[in-house]
Amino acid sequence: MRDMMWIYAAFILLLSEAWSLGPVVRHSAFNEGSDVDLTCSNKTWNETLYVIWTIQLKYRNECQISSDDGGRGVDTCNDGKSLTYTSSTQSYLHIPDFTNGDEGVYKCESVYKGGSERYEINVAITVPPRTSVWFEQQDNKVVAVCKAERGKPAANILWSHAGNISDVKTSSEPDGFFTVESRLTISEGMNTKNLSCAISHPYWREEKILELKLTKDVTWLYISAAAGLVFLAAVVFFAQKKLVILRQCQQSDSSPSKTAPVEDVEEVEPYASYVQRVNSIYNSSADLFT
C-alpha cells in the first residue's frame, strides 16, 4: 500500500513538471481554400481521456471544441470546424475551406492515460495577390507601375531594367491584407521593348512575370507631355497679353479729357472778330476827319 502511494506521488510530480514546461508552440500557414487538419497528439482515441481545443481567432470571438472518452462533446464555434479521427483512431481538428476568418491561435490540451500534451499553434493564411502593370504620366515623365494587390503576406516586386525606382509603397488593410506598388521612372531613350516586373509570393511555386508591351504608347505619352507643355505656355502667353490690354484700357478710361484745346479755339474766335470790328470803326471815324 505504501509503495502504491509513492508511485502515485511520483506520477503527480512528473505530471506537474510536464505542465510547468508550458505548451509546445508551432507556426503553420495554409493556402486559402484548402482543407486544414491540426493534430494535438499521436495517441489513439482508446488511450485518450479528453481533448479540448481553445481557438482564439483574429477577427472573431474565442470558441471551444472538445470531446471526452464518454462521447460527450462541446462546440461553441459552430462554423464547420470539427474533431475527427483517422483510420488509426487518432484525433485531429478539421477546418474545411480555410479562409481569412480562420486565422488565429489554436490551443490544444490532450489528456491521455499516463500523461498529457499541450500545443499552441499559430495559424496563418496565404492568399495570392491580384497583379497588374501599366504605364502612366507623372510630372511630365513616363512611369511604369507594377502592383500586387491584397495579398497575404506582402509580395515582392523586382524590375528587369535598372532605373530610378521613385517609390515602393506597401500598405496594409484592417483585415490583414497587403498591397505593394513599385514605380519605375522611364528615362528618355530607354529601351522598353522587354521591360517587365517579377512578382514573387509564397502562394506560388514560381514568380509571375508581367511584361509591358506598350512601346508606341510610351512614345505617345512623351509627345502628349510635350504638347501639354506647349499648350500651357500658349495659355500663359495669351493670358499675359490679355492682361496688358485690359490694363491699357483701364488707364485710358481714367485719364483726363483732351477736348480742352477745342474750347480755347471757340473762346479766341469771338475776341478776334471783336478786334476786327473795333478796327473797322476806328478806320471809319478817321475818314470823317480827313
**What sort of overall outline do the alpha carbons produce when their principal axes are compared?**
elongated
**Percent of residues in helical segments?**
25-40%
- The whole-angstrom Rg is 47 Å
The quaternary state of the protein chains shown equals single chain
- The first-to-last residue Cα distance is 189 Å
N-to-C series of helices and strands = HEEEEEEEEEEEEEEEEHH
Could you explain the architecture of this structure?
With 290 residues, the protein is an alpha+beta fold. Helices cover 30% and strands 41% of the residues. The protein has helices at 2-20, 215-254, 260-288; strands at 24-31, 36-44, 48-57, 63-68, 73-75, 82-85, 90-95, 104-112, 115-126, 130-138, 141-151, 156-159, 164-172, 178-186, 196-200, 208-211. The strands form four sheets. It has a six-stranded mixed β-sheet with strand order 1-9-8-3-4-5, covered by helices on one side. A hairpin with a 4-residue loop joins strand 6 and strand 7. The protein is elongated, with a radius of gyration of 47 Å. The termini are far apart. Mean pLDDT is 79; it is low at 5-13, 15-20, 257-268 and 270-290.
Overview features:
alpha+beta; four-stranded antiparallel sheet; 3 helices; disordered C terminus
Q: What are the SSEs and their pairings?
A:
Blueprint: H1 2-20, E1 24-31, E2 36-44, E3 48-57, E4 63-68, E5 73-75, E6 82-85, E7 90-95, E8 104-112, E9 115-126, E10 130-138, E11 141-151, E12 156-159, E13 164-172, E14 178-186, E15 196-200, E16 208-211, H2 215-254, H3 260-288
Parallel strand pairs: 1-9
Antiparallel strand pairs: 2-7, 3-4, 3-8, 4-5, 6-7, 8-9, 10-11, 11-14, 12-15, 13-14, 15-16
